[in-house]
Amino acid sequence: MARIVMKFGGTSVGDCDRIKNVARRVKDEVDRGNEVAVVVSAMSGVTNQLVDYCRQIAPLHDAREYDTVVSTGEQVTIGLLAIALQEIGVQARSWMGWQIPIRSDGAHGKARIETIDTSELEKRMASGQVAVVAGFQGIGPDNRVTTLGRGGSDTSAVALAAAMKADRCDIYTDVDGVYTTDPRIVAKARKLDKITYEEMLELASLGAKVLQTRSVEMAMKHRVRVQVLSSFVDAPGTLVCDEDEIVEKELVSGIAYSRDEAKITLVRVADRPGVAAAIFGPLADANVNVDMIVQNVSEDGKSTDLTFTVGKADLDRGVKVLTEKKGELGYERLVPDSNVVKISVIGVGMRSHAGVAQKMFSTLAEKGINIQVISTSEIKVSVLVAEEYTELALRALHSAYGLDAQ
Amino acid sequence: MARIVMKFGGTSVGDCDRIKNVARRVKDEVDRGNEVAVVVSAMSGVTNQLVDYCRQIAPLHDAREYDTVVSTGEQVTIGLLAIALQEIGVQARSWMGWQIPIRSDGAHGKARIETIDTSELEKRMASGQVAVVAGFQGIGPDNRVTTLGRGGSDTSAVALAAAMKADRCDIYTDVDGVYTTDPRIVAKARKLDKITYEEMLELASLGAKVLQTRSVEMAMKHRVRVQVLSSFVDAPGTLVCDEDEIVEKELVSGIAYSRDEAKITLVRVADRPGVAAAIFGPLADANVNVDMIVQNVSEDGKSTDLTFTVGKADLDRGVKVLTEKKGELGYERLVPDSNVVKISVIGVGMRSHAGVAQKMFSTLAEKGINIQVISTSEIKVSVLVAEEYTELALRALHSAYGLDAQ
C-alpha cells in the first residue's frame, strides 16, 4: 500500500465527461490498494472567465475579493469529482482550503502555503475515503480565502504530498512526461524516465512549461517524488526525484529554449566603478528583471559595451528607463533586439564532466550559428543566438549530446 | 440613521454592468447615512448551470457535494459586488456563510437557518463598511457548506435583517412591487403601498411569485418590515408589514390565481368512517399533496362523491395510486381534470366583514362561471373554476372589489 497524491489540471477536468474519466483514473489507484488524495484545478476556461469579471468591474481590484471570486472554480470541480467518484462506488468527499485547513500567508492573489493540517484527511484516507482537495487555494491569517497565483494547483499538490508524507505526487497533465527537448521541434526527442529536481527546475524556468517552478522548488525542499504523466494515456510518465534515485545519469538530460527574452546592448558605456549599479538599479526599480549579462573588456580603458537580456514583455519599458537616463549613464548608443532565443543545455552530469560547454560551442559553430551571450551555472550552459536558428540549434545539440531516440 | 438589509436577485446581478448598477443603489443608501448589509444571489443562469453539471455527473448525487458546487454562484457575486462598491468609493467586504457564520441545520440542499452571529458585521457596519453577504448558503453542523433551497436568498436576507434587528429589509427584484393581481392579465391592477404578512403569505403561496414563502413566514415571525421594489426603477415598492402599520385597510387586498392545480373526483365512494383516511393516506405516502377537498352530502346514505385538488405535476402519480387501490376503496369511477384554475380573494379585512365570499360567488355567477370547489380560510376565499375563465374571472372580481386603478 502506498499513499498517493494525484493532481489533475484544468484540461483534464474540462467538462463532465473528463471529470468522469478522472474519477476512473482515481478508482484505478484506489483499486491497487492505495490511499489517495486528489488535487484539482478549475475546469479549463473558468478561471479566465472569473478573472475577466473582476477586471470588467474594476481594472485595479481588492486582491481579497479577487481571491473570493476566482477560488470558486476549484470549489466547483471538487464537488463534481466527489460526486463522480461516489457514482462509481468510491468513497470520497471534497475539501476546500479552509476546511482542511491549508493555512497560507496573507499575500492575496499570490499567497504561500505555510502549514497543512492533514490529520483529518489521513484518518479518512486510512478508512478508504478519497480526499478531493481544491487546488490553488488556502486560508489566510484574516480567515479569508487566499489563492496561490496562476498554476498554483501544482504547488497545492506537492505541499499536500509533503505534509502527508506521500510516497508519490502524480501530476496529470496534457503531455505524457518530460522530454529531452520540445518534441514539436525535434522529432527525435525522447521522454525521460527520471529527472532530478535541479534539472527539472532549470527546465521549468527555461520554458518547458510542464510543472510550475514553485512546485518543483517545494518538491526539492521536501524531497517529494513527483511524477508527470498524461491524464488521457495510461502509461508511466517522468519521475522527478532525488539524484540518488537515478542510477544511470546522463551527462546532459535536456535542452531547453526560451523565446521570451530580448537583448539590450549599451554601446560605449563609461568603464568606471558604479556604472553597473547605475544601469541595473533603475531597471530593478521599474520591475524589469535582467537575466544574462555580458560586459566586454574595455579596449581603451575608458568605455566598454554592455549586453544583457530582459523579458520580451519588459523590453519597451527597459528601453524607456535607460533612454531617460542616457545623460547620466553616458553611453553612446542603445541597441535593442528582440529576435533572439535562449538555448540551454541542462544536466547534473556536467558537475563532474568537463567539455559540456565546449561541445555546445563547437556544435553551434559547425552550423554557422553565432553565439551572442553566454551564461553558465553548475548544471546548465545557456547561450543567446538569433531566433531564426532555434530549430537548427536544438536539433544539432540534441544529436551532439546523444539524446536522439533510436 | 437606519439599518437596512438590501437583497438583489439573479436578474439584478445578471452581468457586470448590472452589478455596477446595484453598487450605485447601495451607495445611495449609504449616502443617506444608513448602515447597510447587502445579500445577493448568483448571477442569473449560473445556478442552473451548476445544478446541470451535478446532474450530468450523476442524476442522484450527494447533497453535501451539490451544496459545495452550487454555493459558488453567490460567492462569485459577493466578491464582484464588493469590488464594484470599492470602485465607487464605498467601503465594503464580502462574507460567505461560513465566515459570518450563518449556522444552519444539516439538511443539505434545503437547510434551515438556525443562528446568525452578526456581531462582527454590526461592528464593521457601524464603522461605515457595507457587508456583502452571500445569500442561499450557510454552514451546517458538520462544518460543510449548506444551501437553503431555490429562492433561499430571500430567506437569507430576512433572517439577516431579523438577526441584526434591521429597520427594513428591501428585496430588489424585476417587478416594482406587489400588485392587486397579475398586471399581465388585468390592465387595471394597482401596485399596493402596503400589505400584511398574512396577505403576502397567501399571495406568495398562491402564485404571485414575488417573495419566497419561507422568507415571508420568517418576516412575520420576527416582525421584519420587508419592502419589495424594482432594482431597475427608482421608486418605492410595496411594504410587507404588520397589520397595525396599515391605517386604511382594504377589505380585499389582492386576487391571486394558480394554474398549478388539478382536480380529481371519485364518483360513488362508500360513505363510511375511515374512507377519507383510506384515500388520503396512500396519496400522502406517495408524496402527493392535497389542497382543496369537497365531500358531497350522501344522497343514499351509502355512497358519496369526493372531489379534491393536487398539484398538476402530481396528477398522474395521484391517479395511479388511487387506481391501484380501486378495489379497496370501492369507488365507481375516477375523473381527473387538469383544466382548472384556482382563484383566491385575499384580505385581512374579511375577518371583520361579512359578505366577501358572497360577492365572489355572485360576481362569478353573473359572468356565467361555474364554481367547482370552494375553500376558505380566515383571510381568503378560493374557488376552483374551468381554466378558460381565468382572465374573465380575475377582471370581474378585480372590479367587483373596487381594486381597479383610476
Instruction: Give the number of helices of chain A.
Output: 13
CATH topology of the domain at 3-174 in chain A: Carbamate kinase
Secondary structure category of chain A: alpha/beta
Distance between the termini of chain A: 36 Å
Question: In words, what does this structure look like?
Answer:
2 copies of one chain form a homodimer. Chain A is an alpha/beta fold and 406 residues long. Chain A has a domain at 3-174: Acetylglutamate kinase-like (Carbamate kinase, 3-Layer(aba) Sandwich), CATH 3.40.1160. In chain A, 34% of the residues lie in helices and 26% in strands. Chain A contains 13 helices and 20 strands. Chain A has helices at 16-31, 46-57, 63-70, 72-87, 119-126, 152-163, 197-205, 213-222, 275-285, 315-324, 326-329, 356-366, 390-400; strands at 3-8, 35-40, 92-95, 102-104, 113-116, 130-134, 137-139, 145-147, 168-173, 194-196, 226-230, 238-241, 254-258, 261-270, 290-295, 303-311, 333-337, 340-346, 373-377, 380-386. An 8-stranded mixed sheet of chain A has the order 3-6-2-1-9-11-12-10, with helices on both faces. In chain A, strands 13-18-20-19 form a 4-stranded antiparallel sheet, sandwiched between helices. Chain A has a 4-stranded antiparallel sheet with strand order 15-16-14-17, covered by helices on one side. In chain A, helix 1 links the parallel strand 1 (3-8) and strand 2. The first copy, chain A, is globular and about 75 Å long. Chain A starts with a strand and ends in a 6-residue tail after the last helix. The model of chain A has no long low-confidence stretch (mean pLDDT 93). The A-B interface holds A 16, 19-20, 50, 53-54, 56-58, 61-62, 64-69, 71-72, 75-76, 78-80, 82-84, 86-87, 93-94, 96, 98-99, 143-144 and B 16, 19-20, 50, 53-54, 56-58, 61-62, 64-69, 71-72, 75-76, 78-80, 82-84, 86-87, 93-94, 96, 98-99, 143-144.
